[in-house]
Amino acid sequence: MKYRIAVLALAPLLLLAAGCGPGQGIAGPSSAPPVEMSSAPPVVVSSAPPGSAEPTGAQPASDRCHTGELKVTARDAPGGGAAGSLYSWLVFTNVSGRTCSLYGYPGVSWLDGPSGQQVNDPFQRTSDVTPAKVVLAPQAAAHALLRQGQPDLFEPDCHAVDVAGFRVYPPDETGAVFVPWKARACGAKGVDLGDVAPIVAGLSE
Fold first, then answer.
1. Domains observed in the chain
2. Within a 10 A sphere around the Cβ of 166, how many other Cβ atoms?
């Protein structure tokens, strides 16, 4: 009888031992769960100094002279006028601190005031001079030749009016400047349109 009681008392202990595999023992305090590997992307640390931009592969800035870097003035062309035509120069001076370039034709039209209305159609481009790239160091100048007919020779279709100057767009620029130049010009569209030649280096003919 005592033997049976001893066996029954040991039974729970035997069952508990049977449930433990190799290396296992009686459960103790719970251990921490395994650490999962994070799926977040790695943090990229920039090597650029604070406040600087990373290289983007962008093309270098253009060397073109921009409107704000130029002083544009007008003057009589050497020789004045001939055969019913009046000649003048638009002079482009590089007032910036860098070397820049001009290529091609400026856009030119008459205005009745510094911020007024355009008179007639814009000057037309000539085709007898081949454009060439003009490199301007700081304070260097270049010019474009303008030709205008004598308005009186185109009456009564001309409807001549007083004009205050030119609106000038440097080549490939969208910003214009007003250049004072008082004159008479045809107010009727398409009559006695002026001509503009491409910009050439220097201030000699």
1. 67-201 (2.60.40)
2. 26
